[in-house]
Design a protein that fits this description.
Helix 4 (42-51) packs parallel to helix 5. The chain has helices at 9-16, 21-26, 33-39, 42-51, 66-75, 146-151; strands at residues 93-97, 103-106, 122-125, 131-138, 156-163, 170-179, 185-189, 194-196, 205-211, 220-229, 240-248. Strands 1, 4, 6, 7, 8 and 10 form a six-stranded antiparallel beta sheet that branches. It is α+β, with helices and mostly antiparallel strands. The chain is built from six helices and eleven strands. The chain folds into two domains: 4-75, Monooxygenase; 93-249, Galactose-binding domain-like (Jelly Rolls).
Length: 254
């Protein structure tokens, strides 16, 4: 009688590649020696990448471990929650909330412009006193296990969008820290504050940074942005921010 274990290797690769990654690693690998061998094959994980749209022809030479590449692709998403003010201030910690405090407005806003991304409809806006808000991302909770972060050190890409009102000057600041288990700063991105003059073009601008080859031990990512207006006008004339993102992993279509 023929069993599934008697199937040719290429057929077994095709069948097993249909299963979820967790089942392959936690269950199928333990069935027998042959299955463990097949589950560890590069061709199986490359096939899974093809099935789910992660595979790009010219990546062949740059991918050293297709299993890890697949895992990172399947985990990849924006780790910032409520990036564009659709859920009020949910998920954000208001570290500084001075002047007339943080506010949410609809795009394009008074003396403002629309975002390049038509899916973004709102933004957070600062006042005449310092306004800063932050999120702390726990990597293990998001599916990024310690060994993966320490051994593979996948790229961490941070993006944020900011704009000023046409009629008021303002200041924008950003700080992103990679933290250890004990909240020790292992690496930091803290560029010079951006000061925008009055009578500016009110255009939305993107700031971006990629963490690479950072130290082992990263367990949290702390993101903070904000600022204020520079003319101390009552109301909400300060920097506007929206469409924030933090993604981890290989360069894909996301």
């Amino acid at each position: 009688m023929t069993t599934i274990c008697d199937l040719p290797e290429d057929v077994l690769v095709e069948l097993l590649s249909l299963l979820p990654a967790q089942d392959l690693i936690r269950t199928c690998r333990l069935v027998c020696t042959q299955w463990r061998y097949v589950v560890d094959l590069t061709t199986l994980w490359k096939r899974k990448c093809q099935r789910e749209g992660f595979y790009i022809q010219n990546l062949d030479r740059s991918v050293s471990d297709w299993k890890i590449f697949y895992m990172l692709c399947s985990l990849k998403r924006n780790l910032i929650k409520n990036p564009s003010a659709e859920e009020n201030f949910q998920h954000w910690k208001l570290d500084n909330n001075e002047g007339d405090k943080w506010k949410i407005e609809d795009l394009p806003g008074t003396h403002g412009k629309d975002m390049p991304d038509p899916k973004v409809h709102k933004y957070f806006v600062t006042s005449y006193g310092p306004c800063f808000k932050s999120q702390l991302i726990t990597l293990q909770k998001e599916g990024y296990w310690n060994q993966l972060m320490d051994e593979k050190r996948p790229e961490i890409v941070v993006k944020d969008w900011y704009a000023a009102r046409f009629d008021c000057g303002c200041r924008y600041e950003l700080t992103v820290r990679l933290l250890s288990e004990d909240y020790i700063v292992l690496e930091e991105f803290h560029p010079e504050p951006v000061v925008i003059e009055q009578w500016n073009d009110a255009a939305w601008r993107e700031i971006s940074h990629t963490f690479q080859n950072y130290p082992a031990g990263v367990r949290y990512i702390w993101f903070q942005h904000g600022g204020q207006d520079t003319q101390f006008w009552a109301g909400w004339y300060g920097i506007r921010v929206t469409n924030t993102s933090i993604t981890i992993g290989p360069l894909t279509l996301l």
